[in-house]
Specification:
five-stranded antiparallel β-sheet; single chain; 3 domains; 478 residues; Heat Shock Protein 90; 49% helix; alpha+beta; Beta-Lactamase; five-stranded mixed β-sheet; Helix Hairpins
Length: 478
């Protein structure tokens, strides 16, 4: 069994991870931007110091004039511990001036193609700029062609890197503080936002067989994401409540029918025991008992059949059903119901096209549906009237079979319930028709099992029409 997880915790962790990544990204972006800006400023300062050092180169008063370096005018160093280093050479490579430690500058740092180069000096990171073949800035009038020199100037990167480190720590610390604050707000917001869900679960958990009252919290009804779930719970609850009601009614009605049948048998036996009777009287009583037992047996057989059909429909109709011709099953049903119809002086006719209509179904199941529909139609039609079984193709790949009678119709409030088990419009449960209220329930169960639908409507003129729609086989082209 998998361990359950918390949606609240998962959302909060996701939000915090996202904010943490955002914080890390912002910190990295800030450090990279600051590094670029500080590097650019450092390079400008380094070039300025190299130019200022170049300005200290003077022409001597001798003839021809030579080059001198006035070290007394050197600006104070920016770092007293890790001093700047420089070196100045003329165009011939002769050394004009150099600072202490300049001899340790590696050759690759000054001989590369670029003006700037990084290197390590006494374990400290340095950056050097090389001003190659630049003119001496001294404007001595006697010098017709200014001499050219190369200036190498290097300064420590320690201060810049310390500033970057401090900036990174400051940005990271501030970001983490904001992350904690925003994370707390997010956690509070998520928990508060999920309160309607917890309330909905609590209300749903209180539902039981004895308590069907479901009042969703106002927050759940007003929340866009929870509104579909609330509606689904209400729909399922309504269906379950109706199923429990039907189950209770079925149990009550089945017990009533069985009790009535047993009471009739018992009453007949008691009547035979009250006094001595003749052989013919006993024979008539026994025949009446056999009829009552047959009725009881018929009731039990219908109940078992309905239970099997509903179980079959719940598990899904088998796919290996044989192909059945529909009109032939209608004809067989009419033949079975013919004696009952003649006894009530009712004509039964079949209205169907001559074209064959085939279904994937058991012919006995189809015949049972038509027999039940016709039996109902005949029982509620007046003498001398007509009952029709109409078959017509539907353009949507289905066929519609309608049983039409000429009876008084069904009250509007009874129409939604006529397919329920043991339902009868007559509350007195008269036995004059000999039915149990299971015929239409069996029809509905069979039609549903075959992927169809069934409905009853009152005809505009007179009578009732029970309409069955079933899927048909695909017609192969000739």
């Amino acid at each position: 069994m998998r361990k359950p997880f918390s949606i609240t915790r998962r959302i909060i962790v996701t939000v915090l991870v996202g904010q943490l990544l955002l914080t890390a990204g912002l910190t990295l972006a800030a450090v990279l931007y600051a590094r670029a800006e500080l590097g650019s400023a450092f390079d400008s300062t380094l070039r300025g110091r190299a130019t200022a050092t170049l300005a200290l180169v003077r022409y001597s008063e001798s003839q021809p004039p030579g080059l001198l370096f006035d070290a007394s005018l050197l600006p104070p160093p920016s770092d007293l511990v890790h001093r700047d280093v420089f070196e100045i050479r003329d165009s011939g490579g002769n050394l004009i001036a150099r600072s202490q430690g300049s001899a340790e500058i590696p050759g690759e740092a000054t001989q590369g193609p670029g003006a700037f180069a990084d290197f390590t000096l006494r374990g400290r990171a340095y950056r050097a700029v090389t001003l190659r073949n630049v003119a001496v800035l001294d404007d001595e009038e006697t010098v017709k062609v200014p001499s050219r020199v190369t200036v190498i100037y290097a300064a420590s990167l320690g201060e810049v890197r310390e500033q970057l480190t401090q900036l990174g720590l400051s940005v990271a610390g501030t970001s983490m503080l904001l992350l904690l604050i925003s994370g707390g707000i997010a956690a509070w917001s998520v928990r508060r936002g999920l309160e309607p869900l917890h309330g909905l679960a609590e209300k749903a958990g209180a539902i039981s067989v004895r308590n069907w009252d479901f009042q969703p919290p106002a927050g759940a009804a007003m929340t866009e994401e929870l509104a579909p779930l609330t509606g689904a719970i209400e729909t399922v609850l309504k269906g379950l409540k109706e199923s429990f009601r039907q189950q209770r009614d079925f149990t009550s009605n089945a017990a009533h029918e069985l009790k009535t049948s047993v009471a009739i048998v018992k009453s007949t036996l008691q009547s035979l025991q009250q006094r001595p009777r003749s052989e013919d009287e006993y024979r008539a009583g026994l025949e009446e008992l056999l009829g009552d037992c047959g009725r009881l047996e018929d009731l039990l057989e219908r109940m078992l059949r309905l239970a099997r059909i509903e179980q079959w429909a719940e598990n899904g109709a088998p796919r290996n059903q044989a192909s059945t011709e529909l009109v032939s099953t209608c004809e067989a049903a009419i033949e079975r119901i013919q004696r009952l119809a003649e006894g009530r002086e009712i004509a039964v006719e079949l209205i169907a096209s001559p074209a064959a209509i085939r279904l994937q179904a058991d012919p006995q199941d189809l015949e049972l549906i038509w027999v039940n529909l016709l039996e109902n139609a005949v029982q509620y039609s007046p003498a001398g009237s007509k009952v029709a079984l109409r078959v017509q193709r539907n353009g949507g790949g289905t066929v519609i079979v309608s049983a039409e009678d000429s009876g008084p119709g069904i009250p509007a409030d009874e129409l939604p319930h006529i397919f329920e088990r043991f339902h009868r419009g007559d509350p007195s449960r008269s036995r004059c028709t000999g039915g149990f209220g299971l015929g239409l329930a069996i029809c509905k169960a069979l039609v549903t099992a075959y992927g169809g639908r069934i409905e009853a409507i009152n005809r505009p003129t007179q009578g009732t029409e029970v309409r069955v729609e079933l899927p048909v086989e695909e017609q192969m082209p000739a």
